[in-house]
Specification:
Blueprint (H helix, E strand, L loop, with lengths): L2 H28 L2 H21 L3 H8 L6 H25 L4 H6 L4 H26 L3 H25 L5 H22 L1 H8 L5 H35 L2 H14 L3 H20 L4 H25 L14 H8 L1 H12 L1 H5 L4 H25 L1 H26 L6 H19 L5 H16 L1 H22 L1
């Protein structure tokens, strides 16, 4: 994938993150923490439905796309099984004696239940349509499909403020469903030449069965990772309150800006590193990339710690604890990204069971930690439990990669990650005031010195690009 295509795919996550950071304070001022907590349960439910009912066939589509001539038939083959099972499940939910809105949102409402079902269906369709754009490397169209719904949601929320609409969860839910509807319509229009022929395409049953056998084992690791990333929210919903869940969700949303780093890195890293491995590139070159990613993690985490005091100035008073919680919440996107680089040996050696092992062990630990910490510390406890669980996930993947592939130096990296992790946990428990800025500034300075080679190379690269740009303008 050339730099232009990488940039096109990067527009989506970067733009969506920027719009999210603009929208989040507005939503926080307009709606209560309880309603934001309910919105989180909507997102958790949709993500689980996509993971479960896609049956892993979305990944099979990616795997087979370049090896199958009949692309419409391939799309139909991977879409139909999960869609039929999803329809049966949704009909069963609708006909059941209990209310899905009561279970998820603590509100017995036929409207909310109907919107929930519609949101799941729209998301399921959009998931498979988005794969077409991704595999055809239509990066800009893919990015616009991510940006437009965020923009629509922001417009609707601003419309609520302008019209003086009631700040109730029903309106928040409606705004999200309208945004999902726009996603679906944009995807459907951009891929119309692909999905319309699929309606009448013939399914290769033998190929479909082969893809199902390939995909089914992926569900286990997918469910384990979903549990790892959402268990904290489920525990907050179950043994705490929607208010704590709302506060936690806002903190996670701020920390989620670091997922842009993860999305861009993953897009570039996976194809490049496997190409290097096939060409017999010196592992030291790959280790150098790991060091760059470690330096980036130190930089992002430290800057978050140095400037988290800004958060209370843009959120209502009831969210004051977000400035501390988000530092522990940073562990998920940053440690996951770092594990993508340090765990590369697992993929090179095709020992994917170790990735499943890492997710399962971290999942069990996360459950135990949340069970004990949330009743005592609420949202802060959920953040601490998740941070520790992702450190375990990162450590297992790193150690397995080192043992399976190349025994690379990693203690310098562990030292900084442990220091940043302990700092984030400490600040969740104790308000250290201005010392927080001093602590994180010191870690950043030491990190730049410890990774002097990478720091110098990065600085030289940026300066060179700036000078080149200025010369071109002159």
């Amino acid at each position: 994938m050339n730099p232009r295509k990488v940039l096109a795919f990067s527009v989506g996550p970067i733009g969506a993150a920027v719009l999210g950071l603009i929208t989040l304070p507005i939503v926080a001022w307009l709606f209560s923490p309880e309603d934001i907590g309910r919105l989180t349960m909507l997102n958790v439910t949709i993500s689980f439905a996509l993971l479960l009912f896609s049956l892993g066939l979305d990944q099979a589509y990616v795997r087979e796309f370049h090896e199958v001539q009949d692309k419409p038939g391939l799309l139909k083959a991977v879409f139909i099984p999960g869609f039929l099972i999803l329809l049966v499940a949704l009909v069963a939910v609708i006909l059941s004696p209990w209310s899905i809105s009561e279970v998820l949102f603590g509100m017995d409402s036929l409207l909310l239940s109907g919107l929930m079902v519609l949101a799941i269906l729209l998301s399921f369709f959009s998931r498979f349509l988005s794969l077409i754009l991704r595999m055809q490397e239509r990066g800009l169209a893919f990015s616009m499909s991510q940006l437009l719904p965020k923009l629509l949601f922001l417009v609707i929320v601003l419309g609520y403020m302008w019209l003086g609409a009631a700040a109730i969860f029903e309106n928040l839910m409606l705004a999200n469903v309208l945004a999902l509807s726009l996603v679906f319509m944009v995807y459907a229009w951009n891929t119309r030449k692909d999905w319309i022929p699929a309606l009448t395409a013939t399914i290769d049953k033998a190929k479909q069965n082969q893809m199902i056998r390939y995909a089914i084992p992926l569900i286990g690791s997918g469910v384990a990772f979903w549990g790892l990333t959402t268990m904290d929210k489920v525990f907050l919903r179950t043994i705490s309150s929607f208010e704590e869940l709302g506060i936690y969700s806002v903190a996670v949303s701020f920390a989620g800006a670091a997922l842009v780093f993860q999305a861009i890195f993953s897009t570039i890293w996976a194809p490049v590193v496997y190409k290097w491995a096939s060409e017999g590139v010196d592992p030291k070159k790959i280790k150098n990339v790991m060091d760059f990613v470690t330096l980036a993690v130190i930089l992002i985490w430290s800057l978050a710690g140095m400037f988290s005091w800004v958060v209370p100035y843009i959120l209502p008073p009831e969210y004051i604890s977000v400035q501390y919680i988000l530092l522990a919440a940073m562990a998920y996107p940053l440690l996951y990204t770092l594990s993508e680089s340090t765990g590369v040996g697992i993929g090179i050696q095709r020992k994917t069971m170790f990735s499943l092992l890492a997710a399962m062990v971290a999942l069990v630990f996360n459950a135990i930690a949340n069970w004990f910490l949330i009743p005592i510390y609420g949202a802060a406890g959920a953040a601490m439990g998740s941070a520790l669980a992702f450190f375990i996930f990162f450590t297992i993947r790193t150690e397995a990669s080192s043992k399976l592939w190349v025994n690379f130096e990693r203690w310098r990296m562990y030292g900084f990650i442990l220091l940043l992790l302990v700092l984030s946990l400490l600040i969740n428990l104790i308000d250290v005031g201005l010392l927080q800025i001093i602590f994180y500034s010191t870690v950043l300075l030491i990190g730049l010195i410890a990774f002097k080679t990478q720091s110098t190379q990065a600085y030289s690269f940026v300066v060179e690009k700036v000078i080149k740009r200025l010369k071109n303008k002159s």
